[in-house]
Amino acid sequence: MREPLSEDLIERFAHIVGDANALTRPGDQAAYLTEWRDRYSGKTPVVLRPGSTEEVSRILALAYAESVGVVPQGGNTGLVGGQIPSVEGNEIVLSLGRLNKVRDVDAAGGTMIVEAGVTLLGAQNAATAAGRMFPLSLPSEGSAQIGGVLATNAGGTAVLAYGNARSLTLGLEAVLADGRVWHGLRRLKKDNTGYDLRDLLIGSEGTLGVITAACVKLFPAPAERETAIVALQSPQQALKLFRLAEAEAGGALTAFEFWAHRAQAFALDYSPNVRDPFTDAYPWYALIELSHGGSGARVSNTIEPLLTCAHAKGLILDATIARSLRQAEDFWRLREAFSEAQKGAGGSIKHDISVPVARIPEFLERSAVVVERICAGARPVPFGHFGDGNLHYNVSQPEGMDRAAYLALWETMSEAIFELVTELDGSISAEHGIGQMKREALVRYKSQVEIDMMRAVKHALDPKGILNPGKLL
Question: Which residue from 165, 184, 168 is spatially nearest to 176, judged by alpha carbons?
Answer without folding.
Answer: 184
